[in-house]
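Researcher: Let's do a round of design. I'm pasting the structure tokens now; please hold your answer until I've finished.
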């Protein structure tokens, strides 16, 4: 009685494993046939052969260089290019020589070519650079650095201004600063002061015209004063004297001109 039950249990185990092996073999056969069928029909796995070329679905890894005329994502989906080191885009000419290159890596983005252009969505030129010049086509160029903009050579522009309620400083710490224009240089401070400071001489020169000082009050501070009048009375009114070399000094006013008394200041 017990021997019959043990024999039935062994036979059932053998039958179970036999059916399991048969199902596995059918599964692998079906999987192989399905992939082979897909390869024969229109591609292999996620790779499809269409009228426009190859269509690849999912993530893909290329171990060797990929040569293609055009690479685009599915409409409405982004295109990702990912690399553990860098992504390089090289443009070659007919002689297989490198003419343009774009490298995006861990140290930044590097571009190499004869010219670089950046345009807006409307086609307006915003920025371009080549060996001869750099052009900024935007309506405004804003420099946000604390030290401002540093130019090693000359700068040509029709308009320089600061932001509203901000100061505008034109400075050359170790050399000279020149502002030239064939039709004139205009400096305006509509809501503040204009200040020019130098360590040595400040010169205002007009070769063919004149220099006009137009203001309600004109102050000439720290002018040298001549000797007091012989009468000994201290005057609070002075006259401005001009030396032949253009130097100015003050002399106490009298009934007549007193500039001759202090003419030694012209030396």
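Researcher: That's everything. Go ahead.
Model: Designed sequence:
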């Amino acid at each position: 009685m017990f021997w019959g039950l043990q024999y039935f249990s062994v036979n059932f185990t053998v039958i179970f494993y036999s059916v399991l092996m048969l199902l596995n073999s059918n599964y692998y056969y079906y999987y192989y046939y399905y992939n082979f069928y897909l390869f024969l029909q229109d591609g292999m796995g996620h790779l499809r052969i269409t009228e426009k070329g190859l269509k690849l679905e999912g993530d893909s890894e290329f171990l060797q260089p990929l040569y293609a005329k055009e690479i685009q994502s599915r409409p409405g989906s982004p295109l990702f290019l990912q690399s553990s080191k860098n992504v390089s885009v090289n443009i070659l000419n007919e002689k297989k020589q490198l003419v343009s290159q774009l490298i995006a890596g861990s140290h930044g983005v590097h571009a190499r070519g004869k010219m670089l252009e950046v345009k807006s969505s409307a086609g307006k030129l915003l920025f371009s650079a080549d060996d001869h010049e750099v052009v900024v086509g935007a309506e405004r160029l804003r420099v946000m650095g604390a030290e401002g903009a540093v130019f090693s050579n000359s700068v040509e522009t029709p308009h320089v201004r600061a932001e509203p309620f901000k100061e505008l400083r034109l400075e050359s710490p170790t050399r000279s600063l020149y502002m030239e224009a064939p039709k004139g240089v205009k400096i305006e401070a509509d809501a503040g002061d204009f200040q020019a400071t130098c360590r040595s001489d400040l010169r205002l020169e007009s070769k063919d015209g004149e220099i006009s000082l137009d203001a309600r009050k004109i102050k000439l501070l720290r002018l040298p004063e001549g000797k007091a009048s012989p009468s000994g009375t201290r005057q609070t009114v002075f006259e401005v004297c001009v030396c032949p070399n253009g130097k100015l000094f003050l002399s106490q006013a009298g009934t007549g001109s007193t500039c001759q008394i202090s003419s030694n200041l012209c030396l």
